[in-house]
Amino acid sequence: MNDVFTELRRNIHRHPERSGEETGTARIITDYLSKCPGWEVQTGIGGYGVLATWRSGKPGDHTVFRAELDALPIQETTGLEYASVNPGVGHHCGHDGHMAMLCGLAARTPAIGGLHGCISLLFQPAEETGQGAAAMLRDEAMKDWHPSRIIALHNTPGHPLGQLICREGVMLVASTGVSVSFQGTSAHAAHPELGKSPWRALQTLADQALQWPSTLVPLGNSAKVTLAGINMGGPHYGTSPAAGTVWLTLRAYQTETLNMLKNQVAMLAGQLAAGQELRYEVNFTEEFEATVNQGSLFREIRDLAKAAGFSWVEPDRPWSYSEDFGRFGRIAPTLFMGIGSGEQQPALHASDFDFPDELLAMGIDVLETIVQNYHTG
Ligand SMILES: [Zn+2]
Ligand SMILES: [Zn+2]
Q: How far is the CA of 120 from the CAs of 66, 157, 255, in angstroms?
């Protein structure tokens, strides 16, 4: 038997939208929330973001839960009857499930009884491109917004269903994409010495950047540089090309380390261009700050989860992917917590990944437990 949240999730799953284009998804969420008594719903925040607020009318804390609206530009291969009807787009990060869990909390909140303070549900757009959280924070609706805490639950394959995974401090690393383009002059392939090829600059930049994690990053910190792509020329055998681009992904446990690596890229690109008489351009894209779990909030949630009998594990190092949830750390203490989606579950962003429906009720229980803790008694 499928409950209302399973139906809701599957409906969202069937109609996935790319980052920044979540108009239909926002409408599904808004339609659902409008049926939940007591919730005030604001739309169009930082793009298609939706903010729902429940006010008890009594003084107290303001707790915020975050879910994401966007899907991924990946063709779904699950073959499920509720598979994506939008070619080349699919919910392979489980954001459909996160939205349904928050809707589950919206449905349950009015019945909890004796609540004080205020609860918000934040459905952010464009998480996968690292732009949505920042766009929401720039919006007038969130000006002077200083909630007591902001919490995100993200499903996590490879862990038993419903297990909570969390650590104090850095939970998810900071990262950014960077493209460096060099422009020289072309030449006849018979006389490459007469042109200015970008090749040596591209090669040197990639080679050196790949070594920075061991040559520049202090012991105890951590960073990773990945060569995402390199492009120059093509099957035009008569020509020595004039232009080329290298794409790198930079990652670090700390936002400061990431900024240091970004400065290194800009500096080295400038030096190489000057030394070889090339023009150059550096662009950073998909920038994510580190997602940090604030100490006292972490301890409160850990104690609460253990007392409530949830399975709880603490990874000994940050996870190596990034999330734009880290941005919200600028306005409130934040906590990002994994919730196991099954040990045999395909990885996040895999084309056959699907959020397990069995996790919905477990996730809603976790959210409700947090609300009870901060807003009753
Ligand atoms: Zn994702
Ligand atoms: Zn995600």
A: 9, 27, 27
Ligand nearest to the CA of 128: 1
End-to-end CA distance of the chain: 35
CA of 220 to the centre of ligand 1 (A): 27
Cα–ligand 2 centroid distance for 94 (angstroms): 6
Give distance in angstroms: CA of 353 to centre of ligand 1.
11
Ligand 2 mean position, distance from CA 95 (Å)? 6
How many Å lie between the centroid of ligand 1 and the Cα of residue 95?
8
**CA of 155, nearest ligand number:** 2
Q: What is the pLDDT of residues 229-265, one digit of tens each?
A: 999 999 999 999 999 999 999 999 988 999 999 999 9
- CATH fold of the domain at 4-171+290-375: Aminopeptidase (3.40.630)
* Global model pTM greater than 0.85: yes
Residue limits of CATH 3.30.70.360 in the chain? 174-287
Burial of 261 (0-12, 13-18, 19+ CB in 10 A): buried
- Amino acid at position 259, single letter: N
Q: Which ligand is nearest to the CA of 95?
A: 2
Amino acid identity, position 315: P
